[in-house]
Amino acid sequence: MVRNSKDLAKRLRFDLFPRPDFFRRWYWLVGVLFVAIGGLAWWGLHAGTKQRQYLPGPVSQGHASFGDRCETCHAAYAGVPTEACLGCHTDRTHAKSEVETPDCAACHVEHRATGVFLAVANASCVECHGELASTREQPEIRRSVRTFADHPEFGALRAGRRDEAAIRFDHEIHLSSTKIDPDDTLSCVECHVPAKDGALMLPIDFERHCKKCHAQSGLGPDSSVEAVHEAPDVVREDLKAKLLFAAVNNPDGIFGSTDPGLPGRVRRDPLDASVSLAAFIDPTNPKSALAKAEAKLYQPLDPNLGDGASSLLDANKYCFLCHDEEGTHAPGDLPEIEPTMIPTRWLVRGEFSHRAHDLLKCEHCHPDVRESAETADVNLPMKDVCQRCHIDGETRSAGTSCMLCHLYHDTSKDHVLRDARRKEITIEAIFGREAPRARAPTR
User: Fold this and answer.
1) Which residues pair with 268 in a beta bridge?
2) Residue span of the structural domain in which 239 resides
């Protein structure tokens, strides 16, 4: 049987109308009700949390004070421009040779968690350092660093590097000499003390660390004078005052003579034959007490002495045991002591915390220090030592994040420079019109 449209149309009835549907007539009311509920919910959130209802995640602690004013940082439909960050933060360059400076938001991602805003992922570092572009023809360190295994040897330990400090110091003698009393045997922690922040070591101080064994005493006619550890001009004035004090308090012992007139007793001449106190402390008179004390204090280290403990511990215990003189000085003149230039920071491009490693023995990272007999030795742990704990791709690793050791902004390593560039902003710039008012002083 053949069907056509005419036969099919005969089945349709046009005398019937759709019956009324109870739910259909309330569709519009239900829609209006849901829109009203949504509007009330938005109004309630806006009244209670303002713009915080739009946050995709928490705000870091440093930005929490203006976290409900998105326009402080965000530009409409354009994310966070660097200019918004520089409104409060100073412009900090990573390196003078960088080809392009990335935007702040390229590395610092907000709304992830309250404490990870400054934690930059390795991927952000590798994006540039994986194939480094530089304004130099050849990068200063290495063009490609993708993992800690790729990292070059630390700068202070590369070939040809040495400690350039102008001072003589021998770790081997101080840690293993038999001439040191057993009760005074030195260890690393006797001299190397971490700073309060646990990062770098405090500078070596003569009064605290050296004076016990290297006191500059035994000076003056009666050997009662001790020199201070200062610049030669300060030492001279100090010696003058102490010599005068000794002369006034013991004139008979220094300027007097004895003639016992008894058999077997020898006449004692004066310890000093100066005719006046001015002559007693005259630096131009080689026979004065001051000139003799300075000659002893600045006695040159004998270069003909053989190597070993005797040449340093027995020959000369005064200034030039450790220090060097710049040029020579004429009789009566003060010597010029060469600046020691002892480094206070070795890893100038990296951060390190001794506090994070305080469970380890010093010898674990500095194994060769007991055999170090040269000042030129750089007794820092090499990269291979660090890789025993900081292992790429291992679960039981102390971590290999670039941020463990490196900070992008150079000025963040120099606190003086950072403070000098600090910007001062008003409290209204942080809190807006709702800034807390200053309290009136109470009487």
Assistant:
1) 258
2) 207-257+269-321
Q: Is the pLDDT of residue 233 over 80?
A: yes
Half-sphere exposure of 130 (CA within 13 A, CB side): 7
- Count the domains in the chain: 2
- pTM, 2 dp: 0.67
pLDDT band (50, 70, 90) for residue 416: low
Round to whole Å and give the CA distance between 123 and 147: 10
228 and 316 fall within a common domain: yes
pLDDT digits (tens, 9 = 90+) for 5-56: 777 777 776 666 666 666 666 777 888 888 999 988 888 877 777 676 777 7
Q: Are 318 and 298 in contact (CB under 8 A)?
A: yes
Dihedral sign of CA atoms 32, 36, 42, 45 in order: negative
Where a domain ends, among 306, 321, 336? 321
Instruction: Determine, yes or no, domain membership for 130.
Output: yes
Closest of 225, 261, 264, 260 to residue 244, by C-alpha = 225
Domain presence at residue 340: no
Instruction: Give me the amino acid identity at 383.
Output: K
Number of Cβ within 10 Å of residue 216's Cβ equals 19
For residue 411, is it within any domain?
Answer: yes
Q: Please tell me whether residues 219 and 297 are part of one structural domain.
A: yes
